């Protein structure tokens, strides 16, 4: 049997921008993506702590150490700059392997989205 489990999570990161006129996705600081073991194009779930919105999109790399978290395209309507969000991705794996799997959990500084 296979199940879906949390693979990666960036917990409580601040939205820095919303660009309605972009084709879609979420731009994430490359440093945060690396720490969370996310790759460009990976499907992610977003939870907006401020308004309860939940939605899915895909990740694209932002400039390294920029702190950038920008929602693009239609997703830009679900956030405002300054909102706190949680970004998650999932993996499908064997049930027994899932019992011992440890996800990549990242807890950035909410003020500037840094890892310090």
Automatic annotation (TrEMBL):
The lineage of its organism: Bacteria, Pseudomonadati, Bacteroidota, Flavobacteriia, Flavobacteriales. Binds 1 pyruvoyl group covalently per subunit. CDD domains: Asp_decarbox (cd06919). It comes from the Bacteria. This is Aspartate 1-decarboxylase. One of its GO terms (cellular component) is cytosol. Its cofactor is pyruvate. Heterooctamer of four alpha and four beta subunits. Pfam families: Asp_decarbox. NCBIfam families: panD. The gene is panD. One of its GO terms (biological process) is pantothenate biosynthetic process. Substrate binds at residues 57, 73-75. It is found in: Cytoplasm. Belongs to the PanD family. It catalyses: L-aspartate + H(+) = beta-alanine + CO2. The keyword Lyase applies. Its EC number is 4.1.1.11. Pathway: Cofactor biosynthesis; (R)-pantothenate biosynthesis; beta-alanine from L-aspartate: step 1/1. Its main location: cytoplasm. Is synthesized initially as an inactive proenzyme, which is activated by self-cleavage at a specific serine bond to produce a beta-subunit with a hydroxyl group at its C-terminus and an alpha-subunit with a pyruvoyl group at its N-terminus.
């Amino acid at each position: 049997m296979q199940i879906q489990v949390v693979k990666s999570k960036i917990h409580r990161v601040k939205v820095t921008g919303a660009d309605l006129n972009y084709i879609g996705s979420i731009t994430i600081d490359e440093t945060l993506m690396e720490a969370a073991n996310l790759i460009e194009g990976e499907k992610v779930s977003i939870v907006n702590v401020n308004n309860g919105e939940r939605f899915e999109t895909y990740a694209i790399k932002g400039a390294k150490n920029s702190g950038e978290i920008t929602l693009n395209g239609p997703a830009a309507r679900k956030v405002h700059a300054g909102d706190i969000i949680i970004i998650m991705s999932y993996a499908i794996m064997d049930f027994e392997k899932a019992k011992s799997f440890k996800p990549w959990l990242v807890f950035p500084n909410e003020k500037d989205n840094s890892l310090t």
